Amino acid sequence: MKGFTLIELVITVAIVALLASVALPLAETTVQRNKEQELRRSLREIREAIDAYKQAADEGLIERKADASGYPPTLAVLAEGVQNKRKPEEARLYFLRRVPGDPVSGEPWGLRSYASPADAPQQGADVFDVYSRGEGSGMNGVPYGNW
Known about the structure:
Blueprint: H1 6-58, H2 76-80, E1 110-112, E2 129-131
Antiparallel strand pairs: 1-2
């Protein structure tokens, strides 16, 4: 007799279903871990660019008003570049190739100005820090907005 019996087919399908039910949560965890790694990388990249902009402003490479904090007015300025005050004939100063997106929420970054407190971030005349607007918490238990 050729072929499989009904019992053999049912057992095979049950084993495949069991393996799939074990693999699915692992795949979801891997996707979340990758998003969180990308979030960490993006936040670090933007924050380093903000700090480099501030340092350039403090060193007099970027023109700023006397009452300004020295932080960039928007995130876009970091990628668009600014004129080098000391060498205006040379290329602009760039701090980012592009502003990375928020991989967790997919929304624009939350912005905090220099004048706002850390526990209640508000937008203002400059960008002192960025945070994710993603709902929920990371695998470490810390809400995404506090990263």
